Amino acid sequence: MANQPRIDIRTSPFIRKAPSVSQIMRNVVYALLPIAAYAIWQFGLSALALMLATILASVMTEHLFCKLSGKKTTIGDASAIITGLLLAMTLPPGFPLWMGAVAGFVAIAMGKTLFGGIGFNVFNPALVGRAFIQAAFPVSITTWTPALAVNRFIEFIPSTLAVPFMKPAATAEWTTQVSIDGFSGATPLALMKFQGVFTDSYDLFMGLTAGSTGETSTLLILLCGAYLVFKNMLDWRIPAAVIVGTLITAECFYLMDATKYPSPLFMIFSGGLMFAAVFMASDMVASPVTPMGIFVFGLLVGFLTVIIRLFGGLTEAVMYAILFGNAATPIIESYTQPHIFGYKRKKP
Fold first, then answer.
1. Which of 10, 57, 173, 345 has a C-alpha 20 to 30 A away from that of 278?
2. Helices (H), the chain
3. Close Cβ partners of 177 (under 8 Å, ≥ 6 residues apart)
4. Under DSSP, is residue 129 helix (H, G, I), strand (E, B) or coil?
5. Using omega within 30 degrees of 0 as the cis cutoff, is the peptide bond preceding 13 cis?
6. What is the pLDDT at residue 346?
7. Cα–Cα distance between 202 and 216 in angstroms, integer?
8. What's the rounded mean pLDDT across residues 22-41?
9. What is the pTM of this model?
C-alpha cells in the first residue's frame, strides 16, 4: 500500500488563461513606480521632468509610426511607457530634456518599430536609445549631479532646461546645495576607475550615492523585482545568472590584487548592473528561453560587464554587455536546445 501512486484531486479551473501583454506591462509599470518615486525624492523636479519627457516621446513616436504604417495604435499596451520609463532611469538626473526626447524617439523608432513592433525587437529598445545617446552626446550623459540638493523640489538642475545644441548654465551653485555631508556628483564607478576610490557597499546597497536617475538603490530594485517574480512575470534565473557571472569574474580579479580591483559586492551594487539585470536583461523577447541558454546569457552579460568596466574606456558597461548578449541570443539558443529523447540532434 505504501508504494501506491498518489492522486491529487483539485477543483477547477484546471487550465488558466495566461496574462495578456497589457497585463504584464502594467505590472512592470507598477514595479517601476517605487523606483521612480525614490528617484524623484533624490533628485527632485529634474528627475520627474526627465521621466515625463522620455515617456511622452516614446508614446508619441509609437503612435506616429502606427499611423504611418496604417496599423491600429498600440500605445494602449503600455510597452512604450515602459520603454520611456526604463530609458529615463538609465540617464543622469540633470540630462537635458530635449536629449531625453531624442533618446525616446530613437528607442522606439530604431529599437522597436524598425524590427516590426512589440514581440519582434532583437534588442532591448530602451538600451538602443541609450546607446545612441551615449555616442551622440557623450559629455551630457557622463555629467552627474549630487543627490538630495536642498532646492531640488522648487528648481530644476540647470542642465535640465538647456536649449538644444547650447551649453547649459553653470551648475556650481546647484552642486553645493546638498543637504547631507559627503555627497558628491561623482558616481561610485567614476571614483573607482579614475581615482581608485571604492565606495562603501552599504551606501551602494541603500542608494546613498550619485548615479543615474533610477539605478542607485539596490535594495529597492530587488524588492520591486521580487514583486514581478511573485506575479510570475519575471524569470528570476536571468538576473540571478547575471549576478553570478559578475561575482565569479569580479572575484577572480579581486583575488589577484585586492588593492587594485574592487570587491565583487562593489561590482554588483554599483552603477546600473542590478537595475539592468532585473528590468532589462530579462526582456522576454530579446533574451533566451531555453533553460541552459538563460544561464549562458546571464553569465556572458556578467562577464562582459566586469571586463568592460575594468579595462574599457567607459565607467559603465552593463548596457553594452546586454546588447551584445541580445545579439548572441539566437546563437545561444541554437546550441542550448533541450535534447528530445529518441531524436538525434542536428548540428546547428
1. 57
2. 21-43, 45-68, 79-89, 97-111, 125-136, 172-176, 188-195, 201-206, 218-230, 237-256, 264-269, 273-279, 291-311, 318-335
3. 149, 150, 151
4. helix
5. yes
6. 62
7. 12
8. 91
9. 0.85
Q: pLDDT (tens digit, 9 = 90+) per residue, 47-100?
A: 999 999 999 999 999 999 988 888 888 888 888 999 999 999 999 998 999 999
Closest residue by Cα to residue 88 from 35, 138, 146: 35
pLDDT of residue 11: 54
- Class of domain 21-335 (CATH, top level): mainly alpha
Task: State the Cα–Cα distance between residues 42 and 147, nearest whole angstrom.
Answer: 5
Rounded CA-CA distance 142/211 in Å is 10
Residue 324, C-alpha cell as written in the block: 551584445
Q: How far is residue 164's CA from residue 55's CA, in Å, rounded to a whole number?
A: 19
Each residue's pLDDT tens digit, 195-228: 767 777 777 788 777 778 888 888 999 999 999 9
DSSP assignment, residue 309?
H
Mention every residue, 6+ apart, whose C-beta is less than 8 A from residue 48. Answer: 40
Q: Which amino acid is at 162?
A: A
257, with CB counted inside 10 A (0-12, 13-18, 19+), is exposed
**What cell was used for 27?**
505590472
With contact defined as beta carbons under 8 Å apart, do 143 and 190 qualify?
no
Of the candidate ranges 12-16, 30-34, 322-326, the one whose mean pLDDT is the lowest: 12-16
Higher model confidence: residue 188 or residue 130? 130
